[in-house]
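Weekly modeling sync, notes
Attendees: AB, CL, MP (scribe)

Item 1: holo prediction request
CL wants a bound-state model with iron/sulfur cluster before deciding which constructs to order. AB pointed out that an apo prediction alone won't tell us much about the pocket. Agreed to run with the ligand included and paste results into these notes for async review.

Input as submitted:
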Amino acid sequence: MREKLKGKEYEAKQFLRKFPKEKTVVSFSGGKDSLVALHLAQRVGIKKAVFSDTTIESQDTIDYIKEVSITLGVKIDIAKPKKSFWELLPIFGPPSINHRWCCPTIKYPQLNEYAKKQGVLYYITGLRRNESIIRMNYTKVSKNPMMPHVIQINPIIDWTSEEVWEYIKKHELPIPPSYKKGLSRNGCVVCPYKSPKELNMLKKIEPEIWSKFEEFLIMYANMLGIHNKKEFLEGGWRSWRPPTKRKVVENIEVTENYRIMFNNGFSEKNFNLLGILKTGNQLPFHDFQKKVKILIEKELNCVGCGACLSLCPNDALYLDNDKINVDLSKCAHCYECLNTSKLRGACIGRTYSLETSIINIDKK
Ligand code: SF4
Ligand code: SF4
């Protein structure tokens, strides 16, 4: 094992040397895999990392980040989301496998924003293929659609879990607190992807976070009049799909010559984001129509989560009293902020908030 590991270490370091140090940062999660990636990076002279704070981190994790920073001599910045998990929870409900608003709002946007501000082009990760079936097809260099401004480089993509632990032992690296407490992996304290067994362990390990979350679940179940409350509270929330209340704004039409007709008391002046479509008449009609719908719905449903701001390469989007707005002098009409593959529905509020709006747009 030691000889094989030596070969893999050498290969990983050679791979990392291909990337410019000044534009490469480690995306450190506080888990064992990204610890190894961080140490390998430090050994080739990349001494900067960023930790994405989910705002439900345990004190142990925060202390551990500091410990790693000192032990490895690496600067670890902490990136924070625009709104905390606890602020977004009442807006979206509990994050679940079928209602996954958490990563797009409180994990990736701040990493994207950090990369833009710091001029980072490459994030080193501790991704490994054999971590899960979904990751089987991951490659050494990859893109995360929710972080369009960076390329992910994954030096230990083909390492096994045993090799990771062997590396940690060999280099006497500080063991992440979650593993010391008996968990098999790192990650969010209330992650719906964790098994019921792991979540039960976490309830004991992080009683404060969990009692706050359970208090919310009870309040939420009462508020929505959830039929099988017991089942919901005991784990049903993990696959919960909330009911959608739809407000319908009718009588908006797009004419063949690309004019938007409002027959409902609204006008184009009510929707600042429509300015993004300045070059609209160069778009195919159906594309234009689709974008009108997205823009109006974004503006109507904005809950100020901040997720779409980081998608704009020109920093043209901003929040004005928690509502999305655009500085048209900066907008290059690239339509990145309307890309539904980068952000589901191109807007978290439009996709996940409990109150969404629908506009009927018909060709005239
Ligand atoms: S427009 Fe949507 S994605 Fe953007 S900040 Fe508002 S709610 Fe979030
Ligand atoms: S169209 Fe492009 S430049 Fe304009 S706000 Fe959207 S992402 Fe930014």
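Recorded for review: The chain has a mean pLDDT of 89.
Action items: CL to compare against the apo run; MP to circulate these notes.
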